[in-house]
Structures are given as structure tokens and as C-alpha cells.
């Protein structure tokens, strides 16, 4: 159709067309091709030079990584037209005597052997990744795009066949008469695709022990990637058939409900960086699988969730992480689900679950028989989902934490019921029974703190809500510190647990001091009446009043009445309070950075803690300098998650 033509069918008149345009349906123009977008027809059997093929193979990786970044297949992988003409590359389907004019610089095998194997590997990698992504640990459309547009990803082709084709391509290249440099460049790209296919195949294996094969495959991928990066490809000259291999508007020919949106392929160096990040995600999975504490997983996840300027891991990596931690009642591929119950008490209270069970069995005075199965199932559910939530996308994790706080309250209530039916006289047993509900309470306080602070990271708070958020976090942390100090004086855990509690008390104390300082700094900017403040609080923190039956109830976490907040807002010497608490926070953070003490986490997690504390030192020092400067130009606070997820930057 020309640009000024209109095609009408029975029952579809000009008024209907005008209505569609008025609605703004983006698919109305999906078939329209402007003059500047017109290209020569694509010939899948056009012979290629080795350097042209290298460029095509590199851009294939760009399409793949763009799909892993959350775009659709029709916008990325399917823009490679060889995907839709794969049968034309099959040497068995080519007519005898093809090509009619052989070119020694452009051997046919570059198409039928090397390029065909590379396309097969690309589609198989996408198929294997699609299988992992579709395990419902992450969310379609929200985290990734599952639509295949009725195009085959070689679902029925065994991985062994694809690997065989890649091996055939390597053998042909070694025996070919191509220049040595070109053979090595092509071979490195084929080997990278082969190792990547094997790695993705490990990810979908039903046998969790197969994950042990990932480290050598990851190292092989990194070695091949390094060799590829040392021999970068060059963009073909104008008129090259390689430039026609990609059509960003190919979705107009596919079965898709998504309007056409051209996605520009990134620079090749960015592609290799993304692939390297994906490979190092496998390294993180392997590292955490070989740890022996829940705290290591939580610290590792917290580092990713809290660190500024750190990219969110790929959806594929986040799915792998969740499956590696808990899958089919197996923890980390080696422990039964009951191991979570043991670690829950050991890492929270420093007391083994077996010792707690002995106290309950020997001192049980309830009317009904002692039954711990429900409590154990509850702990397994809460613990596994809490750890896995670190690898949700940030908004999804925030919603999960809001729901989990109800489960933690139910667990705390269950422990209170158990404690009421136990009669003990041994002082240590008395202390342990008293600490049972507080174990759930500590997790609940941690979750509440993360929910509120994540609001800063996701830029949810209006300016008048920020002081209230900092004020509430400070009171929640105060309860957490009091609880840790109480348990430290009552219980007698091992030395590592004591060191862990000391670290937590110092870290939480510095965090509380910074929150109080920022509350004092931001309070003068608010002017809310008590009734407005109450409405804002109930709307923003309704999750604090949630219950299992969905009705409003008493708050799940105790906090001072809002009248105290109003009094603090009106009576506090804001500048003096901010200055003193910034100074206190700096002292405590400096101790965390300078003192390397052992904890229940591994060395890598300890380094992550120190790095995060070092970042807080810089942020707090800048805020402290701003508060201390009585004269000079005016300064303003600017909340930017790329600077820090919780605390503001200071701008002139």
C-alpha cells in the first residue's frame, strides 16, 4: 500500500478507522514501512567473508544479552533473520552445484557449518534459559518476557546434537585454508557458544549435584570470552550482506501482541561486560551453595539489595539463586528442609534446636500432646522465602516482606503458647524459653526496618513523609538493640555468636544515630497537623496493622504514639541533635571499618559488610559536614538511590 491509500473491508468503514487512530492503537501502523526504512531483500544464502561472520556472531550475543535484560524475543533474538531461514543453511537442502560461482574467500561452509552451528547454539541457549526462567521463581512480564511468537527455540532438539554441530564447526575451521587469525577468531566464538550451551544445560538439570559442574564450565566461558575480547570484530562495509542479517522490525511478520518497538543493540564492549556479569552470577551461586549458614546467604543478598550503583542481577541469575537455596525440600542441594529449623535457632539465639526440644519434652505440662510439626513447617516456610526474597525484584520483595511480617507474628504467638505450657526451674532453661518468642520478634524487627528503608530506595516517600520514616526506623532499631543486649546477658552462646551480636549492636546503633540525625534535619521542612499526620501514617504503614483475617488490629510492632513525634518535632533542638548523632554514628562506623572481628558469616561476607560500612562513613561524613557548617552557601538534601539507597546526598 502507498502512504495515501486506504483499504476498507465489509463492515469496516472510515469512521471505524478514525476511531482506531483516535484511541491510539500502536499496532495500526505495524505494517507500514517508510521510505528510509526500506532495505534490499535478505538473502540467507549470500556468501560471507570470515570477518563479516565474526561481526554477525558478536551481534548475536548482543541480541541474547538484550533478551536477558528484559526485552522480548521478537525485539532481540528474532531480529536475526537467519533464525527464520535456518532451513536454508542446511547443506542437505541446497541444490547440487550451489553456489554457481564459488569464491575461495567466502567458502560455503562458513554458512552451512559455522553460522548454522552458531544459530543453533543461540536458539538452544535461549531455550535452556527459557526453561529456567519459566519455573515461576520470577515473574513473566515483570522480570522477563516469555512470549515466543510461535517461533521455535529448538525445544525438541537434544543439547547433544547442538554440541555436536558446534564441534563440527570447530573441526572444519581447524582444517580450513582460512588465515590463522580468522580461524582463531571464529573458533573462539564457537567455543564460547559451546561452553555457554553446556552451562545453561547444567542450570535446567533436575539433579542438583550437576550444579557442581558449573565452576569449570564458568572458567572455560571466561577464558573463551577473554580470547574473544582480544580479537574484536569490525563493522562490515556498506553494501555487505551481513548488514542485512538483522531486522529490528521483524515483529511485523510475527504473531505477537506487543507493538513494534525498535530496541537498539548495545555496544559490543557493553555486551561482553553483560555476559561476564551473567557468568559471575554463576560463580556467586556456586560460592553460596558451599556455605553452611543462612547468614551467609542473607548477608550476600543484603549486599546486592543495599549497595548503590550496583545493577540488579539478571532474572536468570536470580532464578538460579532461589533454586540453589531451596528446591524440592532440599537446601543448598545437600541438606533436608529440617536443617533450616536447626540453623534458625542456632543463628538467631545461639542455641541448638535439639537442646530446645529436650527442654520442651522434659518440661511439657500442656493438656494436649506436644506437637512441633506445625511450628517447624512454619519456620521452614518463613526462612526459605525470606532468603529467596533477596533475589526478587525490589518492588516484589517489598510486597513479600509486608506479607511475611504477618507470618512472623503468627510464629511469635505460637512460641508464646508453647512457653505458657512449659514448667521449668533451671535458670538457663527459663532464659531459653523466654527467648523463643524473641527469636521471631528479631526477624520481625529486621523485616520492618527493611520495609521502611526500602521506601527510600524506591523513591516512595514524599518530602513530608521522610522525617516520619526516619523517626519510625529509629524506634524499631531501638527495640532491636534492646532485644540483642537482653539476649546477650541472658543466654550463653558460643564466641562467634557473641561477636555477631556485638557487630549487629554496633551496626544498628550507627544506623539509628543516622536516622535520628536525619529526622532532626528534615523535621523543620514539614508542617502537618495531627489529623493529617495520623491519616498519612495509617495509609503508608497499614502493613503494621495487618492480621491473618485481613482486618485492622493492634500494631504488630510497638512504637511510641504519634503525639511523641509531634512533640519531638516541635521541641527538639534540631541542629544540635543532628550534629551529635552524626558524630556518634561516625565513631561507631569507624569501629566497624577498623575492627575486623570474626562472625558467623564467611570471609567474603565480612568483606561485604566492611565495604558497606565504609560507604556509610563517607555518606555520614558529608552529612555531618553540612550540619556543622553554620555559614556559607545554602545546602539541600537530595535523595538519590544511585548515591545511597537510604540516605541523602548534600548539594549546594
Automatic annotation (TrEMBL):
UniProt protein name: Mak10 subunit, NatC N-terminal acetyltransferase-domain-containing protein
